[in-house]
Write a structure and sequence with these properties.
The structure is a single chain. The chain is an alpha/beta fold. The protein folds into two domains: 199 residues, 3-Layer(aba) Sandwich (Rossmann fold); 95 residues, UDP-galactose 4-epimerase, domain 1 (Alpha-Beta Complex). It is built from ten helices and 13 strands. The strands form four sheets. It has a seven-stranded parallel beta sheet, with helices on both faces. A two-stranded parallel ribbon has the order 7-10. It has a two-stranded parallel sheet with strand order 8-13. Helix 1 links the parallel strand 1 and strand 2.
Length: 323
């Protein structure tokens, strides 16, 4: 395929909107499906005149069936993407993530869709036995969110082997960058700005847990590029890939990097709460040798990726009531 029409579910979300940007920049037509429960119109206002936007949910099978007939590629990112939310509302997580994925796969069984790219998650591994984690390592999710992503992967695999739906699943590790609406970096920046606004200084930064948890942070633009490359290459059909950098960073080092980037190191003390949220895991680092073998490109260095998110936050987060 030289140019094609791509349907991006969850295209108004954090990662989804970057996927849309990548496909548009490469000259392809894009349709976005989003119910705006997780996504935000602000994320796609810069390309509003370049895409077709359909407001609706992947949980609605009839709605989906009307939109997939003339599509070449589907990037499926629409989902509840919060571990903590899945713990508190597992039914919502199941309906959004499992039923939504099944509806899409069923809808494209007898169509000319050439590639189905599924956004899975590192949460499928749960607490890994060792790191870095290979795609062949055991899947032991510890949250409903992780379980829903495992289930989605299995449905994708079955529809690939049984019904011939050409597909690839991407186990995405911790994405960071512009438009990230929550998670650790955003939360730490909010706490710092709240202290600065209320007290005129940032003497303390509260961090959940002990700071010892380790994550593999990958720039969201690199994640989007992975979706694009998978759509363009035939060698990835039926495969599963870890999408990370292969480098782990502790939460304590992350907090220190944020203070350093903001020039708060000398004035701010980090205080760890000692406990985190239910469903959290201690260490996630991807083995990306399989991804690099098939889709070889350079990843954005962590300090640069972090700075992208800090710059975006400083430029766009102006509503102090959000703190």
């Amino acid at each position: 395929m030289s140019t094609f029409k791509c349907l991006v579910t969850g295209g108004a979300g954090f990662i989804g909107s970057h996927v849309v940007d990548a496909f548009l920049a490469d000259g392809h037509d894009v349709i976005i499906i989003d119910d705006l429960s997780e996504g935000n119109m602000i994320n796609i206002e810069h390309i509003a005149d370049k895409v077709e936007l359909e407001i609706g949910t992947v949980k609605d099978a009839a709605f989906i069936e009307e939109l997939v007939e003339d599509v070449d590629v589907i990037c499926h990112l629409a989902a509840n993407a919060s571990v903590s939310k899945s713990v508190h509302n597992p039914k919502l997580d199941f309906e959004s993530n499992v039923i939504g994925t099944f509806n899409l796969l069923k809808a494209i069984m007898n169509t000319d869709v050439k590639k189905f790219i599924y956004a899975s998650s590192a949460a499928v591994y749960g607490e890994p036995e060792k790191v870095p984690i290979k795609e062949t390592d055991p899947l032991k999710p510890v949250s409903p969110y992780g379980a829903s992503k495992v289930s989605g992967e299995h449905y994708v695999s079955v529809f690939n082997s049984t019904y011939g739906v050409k597909s690839v699943s991407l186990r995405i590790f911790n994405s960071i960058g512009e438009r990230q609406p929550r998670y650790v970096i955003y939360d730490l920046l909010k706490k710092l700005m709240k202290n600065l606004c209320e007290y005129g200084e940032t003497k303390e930064l509260e961090v959940l847990g002990t700071g010892e948890n380790i994550r593999d942070f990958i720039y969201v633009g690199d994640v989007a590029r992975t979706f694009l490359e998978c759509a363009k290459k035939s060698i990835v059909d039926g495969n599963i890939y870890n999408v990370g950098t292969g480098v782990g960073h502790s939460i304590s080092s992350l907090a220190e990097e944020i203070l350093k980037a903001l020039n708060f190191t000398e004035t701010t003390k980090i205080r760890y709460t000692g406990s985190s949220w239910q469903g959290d895991v201690s260490k996630l680092i991807a083995d990306i040798s399989k991804l690099q073998n098939d889709l070889n490109f350079e990843f954005t260095p962590f300090p640069e990726a972090l700075q992208h998110e800090i710059d975006w936050f400083n430029k766009n987060i102006r509503d102090l009531t959000a703190f």
